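Lab meeting, action items carried over

1. Structure of the two-component assembly. Owner: GW. Status: complete.
Input record:
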Amino acid sequence: SFHRRVLPPSGIAFASTRGRELFAEALAAGTLHCFFKLIEQFCTQAEPAYCGLGTLVMVLNALDIDPGRTWKGPWRWFHEGMLDCCEPLEDIRRRGITFDKLACLARCNGAAVRSVCSGDNAACCGGSSGRVHRFLVVSYSRREFGQTGDGHFSPVGGYHAGSDSVLLLDVARFKYPPHWVGLRALWRALCRTDPDTGKTRGYLLLSARKPGAP
Amino acid sequence: SFHRRVLPPSGIAFASTRGRELFAEALAAGTLHCFFKLIEQFCTQAEPAYCGLGTLVMVLNALDIDPGRTWKGPWRWFHEGMLDCCEPLEDIRRRGITFDKLACLARCNGAAVRSVCSGDNAACCGGSSGRVHRFLVVSYSRREFGQTGDGHFSPVGGYHAGSDSVLLLDVARFKYPPHWVGLRALWRALCRTDPDTGKTRGYLLLSARKPGAP
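Predicted assembly:
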């Protein structure tokens, strides 16, 4: 068994000395707008294959969307166990979720979704400049970064211009800390084919369809 | 049922315009050292009465303590459901946990604990200056802040000198966002008697007894 993994040098750990420097510079430059609302909802994915669900829960709660149903006690709040409308949770627990299914789940739960497949060759990550209430979720292969595992989803928590890198708020917190990665490498990681679907990956831009109501 | 609560004016929301100003000033002043490792582990308490357990899980994972047992899959990682050694979880789920029992749980799980009851009249929150690997957990009454509910635990995520306030990383994220509160008001909130124990509350200073091993 494992207590975390060592982050490969392709990433700069958020809380490391260099990570804090990047953070301070990005804050001063105004490219961390999206960080505040997202980090308020930072979570550990509830199951080892729930990276998509954990990421989506973060974004739905950060968008302040009311799920319209209770979680526990009297509280209406998104939790991974409630995201069962597009694919049986048991299947996601075993195999994870595909890019298209995650976009479907986001729409079903009150988000406006712009879904961009990397095959579309669109300019990626413009959204990472960070308007609040619009969050970027990337679907990528960890292999590009020399990380263990393969397909993964992460919300993007900010952008640092000097190093042209973005902050990945990795929900597999039992494995890697949040970390900065180069934008070009991230784009290559998005362009890697998902062996389960035979398609390249992509990104989602998520906003609230109607704030405060599903 | 409720979708969050409005934060009373005794607190300044972390992601509000003013909250971001306080954050930027505290970052520049060097009083956010503890923020980085703690926010990496920010979580929602898993049950409505698990504020103590949620807070402790944040701190144990932020201290990088290896629980020595697996959570899910091959991963050793702290989760509230694993903190069952000092008090039955079912009791905590119904009634919450007392200050002394939480200190006991922290010790049992590999933390070095300095426990200060507010009745001791110690200087509170010196720890909020924020050396990494030493985190402050406060036990207080929400009533002092005009918030609904009463007894609560929160980790302290930073200090802002100009306003003499601290950042509470409130794990009841379904209710309130993280927020800044005045240190004097927090001290009064710590000094309020806990009706369940008849004692005043206090704070815990937590560090790793032996990093990487329980």
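2. GW to write a short summary for the group page. Key points so far: The two ends of chain A are 40 Å apart (CA to CA). Residues 12 and 180 of chain A are 5 Å apart (CA to CA).
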